[in-house]
Amino acid sequence: MAQLVGSLRKELADSLSSCKVLVVGAGGIGCELLKNLVLTGFKNIEVIDLDTIDVSNLNRQFLFQKKHVGLSKAQVAKESALQFCPTANITAYHDSVMNPDYNVEFFKKFVLVMNALDNRAARNHVNRMCLAADIPLIESGTAGYLGQVTVIKKGLTECYECQPKPAQKTFPGCTIRNTPSEPIHCIVWAKYLFNQLFGEEDADQDVSPDMADPEAAWNPKETAAESLASEKDGDIKRVNTKDWARSIRYDPVKLFNKFFKDDVMYLLTMDKLWKKRKAPIPLDWHHLEKTSPQEVSGGGGLKDQQVLGIWGQCQLFRHSVETLYSQLQEKGEGAELVWDKDEPAAMDFVTAAANLRMHIFSMNMKSLFDVKSMAGNIIPAIATTNAIIAGLIVLESLKILSGQIESCRTIFLNKCPNLRKKLLVPCILDSPSTNCYVCVSKPEATVKLNVHKTTILFLQDRLLKERFGMVAPDVQIEDGKGTILISSEEGETEANNNKFLSDFGIRNGSRLQADDFLQDYTLLVNVLHTEELERDVEFEVIGDAPDKAPPPQANQEEVNNIANGNKESSKQSTSAEGWLEDFLIERFILIRGFIPRFVISPGAARRHHDRAACDHPHRWPPGYHGRVCHGLSAHYLCSKMY
């Protein structure tokens, strides 16, 4: 009989106590994970997190207390976890995992890496570092009641970037408050502002500049001092935005200058934020009133599809504030409004506030129609979801350390039980995609853009860093001369930043080689010149549509869906499509009106459409075939079909 140490075989228990693992992220999932690891028997753990503790974290990140507000999450999580197991050896880093100090050699010292992140850029980076170091990665994510865990191993499974992902639905607070880079960031900020002024206030939805932004204040002690400076008698004092707005009787001009001038000027004092970003430009109501005639940009068309000029947005802001204030007065003292995209005044307010912020941060403004389509519900963070996902991460790690990586599964946590009354649905891991531009042997991508309008700085920041996830790219033209466009060494190629690609002889068919030595990653970029991109579309990655379809499967009976981790149970379906297909259609279409990305046979589509007991439109493209989108964070699992 095998000797046991607790509930584990002695060999596995010994492996746990001797192996070294890395936990990336010490937030919602990370806190639960650290606690689970030390209680399971892991002794050598390193944890890294750039963030500091905010008061809004305390309702779900149970390793933190009010006295820790402003301190490093990684350091406090380490100290709290050691109380569960004082003999554990935990090293904490208050830093970004994308810092060049954490290179491939750093990752190679670990047996296993576990992600507990909240943003795609860091997930992409850790994915590449683990591929370069050839070590297993357990990826995870949650969104409300939904969650997902999967295992990534070079050459054996899909990597994090094998399947394209829809736009991210949740964003770090410091991005929303300090450094928005996409229109959706500004729209989320505007919805937060609505609640701060007219609705139910939430500490998670603060819109003022984040003074504890870890990127702006790298010294944890200074950050803690700033955070605790306003603490009195054990209570954290915060400016009540709604009380201030009431005191000025919701004067639109004063509100405007506070949020779009004064707060932006305060952001500019955080000079570290703007060393590698374009700084925001404050707006002043009285200056705009004198210098900006009312105008409409974007041509004709329906009213809600027009894009107002900057003064038009100011007028829309004033009118919506006045209307919403009158609605508050009608409801009586202490009343609150609830944001509704079908309420004209609320939608006008969010559209105007979002567009004004987009203008401040040098983004193209959007029409009311576009803003309305992007303004979805904010997904809450739920402690029990994080706890379940953290437990699943540990279970998958035990399989890896037992040498049974082939037994690992992608596991979905769902809000409602499936037809078999299961909340957890395991699926077999997919093989690497042959079209992946990250984990194939020679990564290559084709990009359609206008070489006469695309600058070198745009190529570096928006295409290579933001879209392709590089950290410090070096780029040269494959022209036989090795012309260098971008150097990761500071100052070497900054003179090229504002030049256009065409200035360097780049034209249709040109090829660029982009190297990121930190990630040990090389990408060949094929340039397709075009002057016919859609409005507000600056480039297009060919073959990058989220619903890109693989060819139909020759034999649907071979679909690798596993029920309860058992191959035999996957054969219990009453049809060739398999029970998992039935479940996913039932879960995401009949209940939520979504189409999941997995192999869907026309027969299954017809079967479920026929028995649908709801009003959701089932717009199935002819012969549609998709596939599971392993977004590794639950909000990536599916997307709406319009």
Automatic annotation (TrEMBL):
EC number in record: 2.3.2.-
Chief site of localization: nucleus
Binding residues for ATP: 25-30, 49, 57-60, 73, 118-123
UniProt record, GO biological process: protein sumoylation
Listed name of the protein: SUMO-activating enzyme subunit 2
Class in the EC hierarchy, top level: transferase
Gene3D superfamilies named in the record: Ubiquitin activating enzymes (Uba3). Chain: B, domain 2 (1.10.10.520), Ubiquitin-activating enzyme E1, inactive adenylation domain, subdomain 1 (3.50.50.80), Ubiquitin-like 2 activating enzyme e1b. Chain: B, domain 3 (3.10.290.20)
GO molecular function, one term: metal ion binding
Lineage, highest ranks first: Eukaryota, Metazoa, Chordata, Craniata, Vertebrata
Assembly with partners or alone: Heterodimer of SAE1 and UBA2/SAE2. The heterodimer corresponds to the two domains that are encoded on a single polypeptide chain in ubiquitin-activating enzyme E1. Interacts with UBE2I.
Binding site for Zn(2+): 159, 162, 436, 439
PROSITE patterns per UniProt: UBIQUITIN_ACTIVAT_2
